[in-house]
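Following up on my earlier thread - several people asked me to post the actual chain instead of describing it. Fair enough. Here it is, all 96 residues.
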Amino acid sequence: MIKEIYKINSDGIYEDVYLANLEENNYYNGEEWSEIDFSYVEAKPPHAKVARWDGSKWIVIEEYPIEPIEPQPPTVEERLKMAEDTILFLLANGGI
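Reply from S.P.:
Thanks for posting it. Predicted structure:
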């Protein structure tokens, strides 16, 4: 049976994912089938920048950075409200 396996290094850090035929102890590296000669886990790692397998579960070491949200220009309603507030302020304070 062919399934995904998740390569880990000697510290348990996730490195890559491969298709493997575990009955024949082979994995597909994108070009050919080779004998599995590395440590791997069958449990899918979490979506994280760095994850480590502790022997029974994945531990997130580092999350992906959260992309900042770009500032949006004010809506028409917000612009009208700002203009109205400015006019009322000027009227109330004798600025016009």
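The chain has one helix and seven strands. That should answer part of your original question.
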